[in-house]
Amino acid sequence: MTERQEVSAGDFVYSPADFEQIRRRLYAQTGINLASSKAQMVYSRLSRRLRALRISSFADYLAFLADNPREQEEFVNALTTNLTAFFREAHHFAMLENYAREFARAGRYLRCWCAATSTGEEAYSIAMTLIRAYDSYSPPVEILASDIDSRVLEQAKAGIYSLAQLEKLDSETRRLFFQRGRGSMAGRARIRPQLTELIRFERINLLDTSWPLKEPFHVIFCRNVMIYFDKPTQFRLLERMLDYLADDGLYFAGHSESFVQAPHLVRHVGKSTYMKVDAQPGSSGYANR
C-alpha cells in the first residue's frame, strides 16, 4: 500500500494508517515485529473479526479494540502464525532422548517447557520422546506447554489430529501413542491419555513482565518464535528464559534462529541447541561438548 492508498478488494475500508496502528499495537502486546510487507495478510486475517462484529472499517475496529479489552485476545489470536508438525526438526528430539536417558538412569525428575506449543504437536512429540527415554508411560516428568494464542491451546488440549497429520510418523509411533477414531471420528486420531497426563497447557505471553513459573526447567523448547521479534527483544527474552533453565539444562532454538551474537549468555552444544555459558559439567554430559 502507498501512503494514501486503501485496499480496494474486499468488504472493509483499510488504510496504510490502519495497518501501521495495527503493527504498533501488536508489537506493544506481543513483541512481534510485523513486516511492512504483511498488510494484505493483516487484512485477510482481521477481516474475519470485522465480519463477526459487523464493523465496516478497520478504523472502527481499532476504536472498538481500544474500548473492549476482551477483543485484544481475539486480535492476537488472529495475527499470530501457527506452523508446526510432529517431530519437526527431528535432530532435537534425538538429542532430547539421549539427554533424558541420563536422567532416567539416575532416577532424576525432568521438567520441560515448550514455550510455543501451538496446536500441541511439539509438546506431544516431547512427551513421546520422554516416554521412550524412561521406558515408561508414566515417567517422572512434567511438561509445561504454553502459547499466546488461546484458540490453538484449546486444540492442543483436545489432542485430536487428522490422519493426514500422522502420515510421516512410523507405524510403531502411531500404535503406541494414538487412538484411531471410528464412526463420527473416522479420519482422525486422539493422543493417548497417558501423554496428556504429562502436560499442563497454559496461556503465556512471553512479553508479560512476569511468568507463572517457579522451579527451573531442565529443557526449554522455544523454536521458531524469536524470528518474529526484533534483536533487542530476542536477547532480552533469551536472558529471561535462561533464568528459568537449570545449570545443566538444554535450550532448543529454531533452525533459523542463532545466538552466536550472545556468547556471554549461551554456548552452542548441537544443531540450534544451547547451554548456559557458565554451565557446569553435570549428569547431562553436554557441558563439555
Tell me briefly what this model is.
By secondary structure, the chain is α/β, with parallel strands linked by helices. It is built from 10 helices and 10 strands. It folds into 2 domains: 16-79, Orthogonal Bundle (Chemotaxis Receptor Methyltransferase Cher, domain 1), CATH 1.10.155.10; 90-276, Vaccinia Virus protein VP39 (Rossmann fold), CATH 3.40.50.
Q: Biggest β-sheet, characterized?
A: 7 strands, mixed
Number of strands: 10
Radius of gyration: 21 Å
CATH superfamily of the largest domain: Vaccinia Virus protein VP39
CATH class of the largest domain: Alpha Beta
Reading the helices and strands in chain order gives HHHHHEHEHEHEEHEEHEEE
Number of domains: 2
CATH fold topology of the largest domain: Rossmann fold
Overview of the molecule:
By secondary structure, the chain is of the alpha/beta class. It has 2 domains: 16-79, Chemotaxis receptor methyltransferase CheR, N-terminal domain (Chemotaxis Receptor Methyltransferase Cher, domain 1, Orthogonal Bundle), CATH 1.10.155; 90-276, Rossmann fold (3-Layer(aba) Sandwich), CATH 3.40.50. It contains 10 helices and 10 strands. It has helices at 16-30, 39-53, 58-67, 69-79, 90-106, 121-134, 150-158, 171-177, 193-196, 231-243; strands at 110-114, 141-147, 160-162, 178-180, 188-191, 199-203, 217-222, 245-253, 266-270, 273-276. The strands form 2 sheets. A 7-stranded mixed beta sheet has the order 6-2-1-7-8-10-9, with helices on both faces. Strands 3-5-4 form a 3-stranded antiparallel beta sheet. α3 (58-67) packs across α4 (69-79) and α5 (90-106) runs parallel beside α6. The longest helix has 17 residues, at 90-106. The protein is globular. The chain starts with 15 loop residues before the first helix and ends in a 13-residue tail after the last strand. Residues 1-9 and 283-289 have low confidence and may be disordered.
